[in-house]
Amino acid sequence: LTSSSRSKPSPSFGNVIPQVSPPPRRANATLVMLARNNDLNGVISSVEQLEARFNRKFNYPWVFLNDEPFSTDFKRRVSVLTDANVSFGLIPREDWIQPDWIDEGRAQEGRNNLVRQGVIYGGNVSYRNMCRFNSGFFFRHELLTPYKWYWRVEPDVRYYCDLDYDPFLFMEDNDKVYGFTISMPEWEPTIPSLWSTVKDFIAEHPQYVSPDNSMDFLSDNAGDSYNMCHFWSNFEIADMDFWRSEAYTKFFEYLEKTGGFYYERWGDAPVHSIAAALFTRKDQIHFFKDIGKLWSCCFVFILVTDPFAGYKHAEFAHCPQGKQWREGHCSCDPNDNFDFAQNSCLRHFMRLHD
Ligand code: GDP
Ligand code: MN
């Protein structure tokens, strides 16, 4: 060996950087589903589809919540469907059951009244527990407090298309707060005093109302009366920090103390929608039609109404159209689309955004 060759610097390990790409950016987000043990088949169906169409690529964690402990069988059958982190939580009893201060006689009267009118879930207390929990409590559950963003999933929903971008990052990067796919009118007998309560609240707390709000989505007469339009909450991609904000906290407390969740049958969908429409800027509410480009759409849903003492069943779906339908490899019929059906509220939303 010559001295020159000996003095040659040996290749430094530090110069040989292995070719690893940086980890993809992720949102602080989770998928969340409220379910009962006996919803297992519907839960499996929803998780299977969402995993295949979206989450296999993105691996966001799942959180399942229940007012009773999940069975070992439920946990085993659901956990096997994904490589993502899955957790199962029990809802604290006081966040679920009808509070003691509710006048049960009056609540019973309210239930009887809705049963007489043939309103779906009219006589059901656990449905009311669920609506109140989704309105005011889920985002405070200890399994959800670490997260900012959530995607709400329900048992037995259908996801028809691929979603190959990250909707949480989309929301974050575009300063969005609330995302929906289907909107429609609520059934008036379930919320007879909700709007007057909302009007009282905003009269007392005008500072929470956004100057650039979506009142015209909710009302056809500048807020005098509610047109019943709401975003359907069985799909939501939204920011839990909004539900944790002072405005929404005060709003929920105000609604809660009227007892309307039990004396009437206030749904979490109108409650969320009214808050999102009034306390955010209108450009912070997002219609996921192009997400639909990649996945989605649709929950096909059956709503039972009672127009002439008979029953009418209607289906509601959002099916992406055209290029979005093709590129999303959608399995829905693009002609079977609720977007501009007679009682869709999408046109109310669109007229705000033209
Ligand atoms: P709908 O969409 O208004 O017809 O109401 P659902 O019956 O679909 O209920 C909405 C969500 O709450 C679903 O995710 C259900 O699984 C869940 N849910 C409804 N009632 C209960 C209940 O009593 N206990 C639990 N753990 N989940 C419930
Ligand atoms: Mn449902």
Report on the architecture of this protein:
By secondary structure, the chain is of the alpha/beta class. It has a single domain, classed as Spore Coat Polysaccharide Biosynthesis Protein SpsA, Chain A (Alpha-Beta Complex). It has 15 helices and eleven strands. It has a seven-stranded mixed sheet. It has a two-stranded antiparallel sheet with strand order 6-7. The protein starts with a helix and ends with a helix. The N terminus is likely disordered. The site of manganese (II) ion (MN) has 2 residues, from loops.
Write the layout of secondary structure elements.
Elements: H1 3-7, E1 29-34, H2 40-58, E2 62-66, H3 72-79, E3 86-90, H4 104-116, H5 125-136, E4 149-153, H6 167-173, E5 178-180, E6 183-185, H7 194-204, H8 215-218, E7 229-231, E8 236-239, H9 240-243, H10 246-256, H11 260-263, H12 268-279, E9 285-287, H13 291-294, E10 301-305, E11 312-316, H14 322-327, H15 346-352
Parallel strand pairs: 1-2, 1-4, 2-3, 5-9
Antiparallel strand pairs: 4-8, 5-8, 6-7, 10-11
Helix pairs in contact: 5-12
The protein binds guanosine-5'-diphosphate (GDP) and manganese (II) ion.
